[in-house]
Amino acid sequence: MLTNARLSSAPEGADDALRTTDLLSRIDAWSEEMGFADWGVARLQLEQDHERLDAWLARGLHGDLAYMARHGDKRREPGKLHEGTLSVLSFRMDYMAQNRRAALADLADPAQAYISRYALGRDYHKVMRGRLKKLAERLATFIGPFGYRVFTDSAPVLERALARNAGLGWIGKNTNLLTREGGSLFFLGEIFTDLALPEATASARDHCGSCTRCMRLCPTDAFVEPYVLDARRCISYLTIELKTAIPEELRPLIGNRVFGCDDCQLVCPWNRYAGLTKEQDFAPRHGLDKAQLLELFELPAEAFLRLTEGSALRRIGYEQWLRNLAVGLGNAPANPDVLRALAERREHPSPLVREHVTWALQRQMEKRAAQGGAPGT
């Protein structure tokens, strides 16, 4: 029930229950209008989730993600992240612009650069944050000014736990939030507010059952047990979060994945029901859904900056981009053009790039020799 004094601007004569129903129905309509697939009001009890996070950190499974160990009190108690928070509204927005079969076909082409489907369009942080702010502003026009703050993967927020508590789905064995209606191919965002709204009464039941496809088919065997991911082996971590050299024993397992990894989602049976997004902002840009490893590797820094403007790809920077592409080229079929391109970057000023180029060159020469070609460049 709405208890915030600012709700006095709701229709005169309506009791609290009617005003609550009216407001929730309006949020429902506005969220659909703004492209959100679902939303709910989260229960704020997160103690057990934080205990699991602490246990995960204690095992060192977070790798270099030092920020995960900071601001624990703010993750545990949303009111400490935004003072006065009484309710958290959780929203999801679908992002998949192509069906699973098309994504799997792209992944199966070893000469193609596979970029996680969420990163092919406009940076989701900007899209989601903008929509959430617009929704909050519309809410303010209805009830009057109120306190709020919006988040989307941008602060110490247990987003999946809050979404689960809002009734949007369950946290699956692959650690993603899953829904029976839409799989897991969506973004999450929140509005922390000082409005006291009726919370979801229960979380969705876990429907993973005995299925372990996500765990069995992970290229780097990153799941140590159901619901527990070793980030240090996760390809998304290795290609995005890790700023140093990728462990050599994991490089062959990365294949052609140069930014993120979708495997544990693409093989999930529930993603058969994932709908395609209607958001043009999430449509692939610059042909990145079909780009070849070689053409991307040959781009100069200026072209990389143009290509990634307004994209989540920009966050890894040009040096890390070349590192990832070098690994992909090392895993690609033997090709004299690939050998030439790698050789041209053998003396790159970055030690990080040089190391991975040297590794890729060796891999390419070994493949060429195995085919009976000249081993050198």
What does this protein structure show overall?
The strands form four sheets. Strands 1-2-7-4 form a four-stranded antiparallel beta sheet, with helices on both faces. It is elongated, with a radius of gyration of 23 Å. Helix 15 packs antiparallel against helix 16. By secondary structure, it is α+β, with helices and mostly antiparallel strands.
Write the layout of secondary structure elements.
Blueprint: H1 16-33, E1 38-42, H2 47-58, H3 72-76, H4 78-81, E2 87-94, H5 100-108, E3 114-115, H6 124-143, E4 148-151, H7 159-165, E5 170-171, E6 177-178, E7 186-193, H8 213-216, E8 223-225, E9 228-229, H9 235-241, H10 251-254, E10 257-259, H11 263-266, H12 293-297, H13 301-307, H14 317-331, H15 336-344, H16 351-370
Helix pairs in contact: 1-6, 14-16, 15-16
Protein traits:
single chain; 377 residues; alpha+beta; 4-stranded antiparallel beta sheet; two-stranded parallel sheet; 40% helix; disordered N terminus
Summarize the structure.
The protein is an alpha+beta fold and 377 residues long. The chain has 16 helices and 10 strands.
Class from helix and strand fractions: alpha+beta
| Strand order in the sheet with the most strands | 1-2-7-4
**N-to-C series of helices and strands:** HEHHHEHEHEHEEEHEEHHEHHHHHH
Q: Categorize the overall geometry.
A: elongated
Q: Report strand %.
A: 5-15%
> Tally of extended strands?
10
Q: What does the radius of gyration come to?
A: 23 Å
- Average pLDDT, rounded to a whole number, is 92
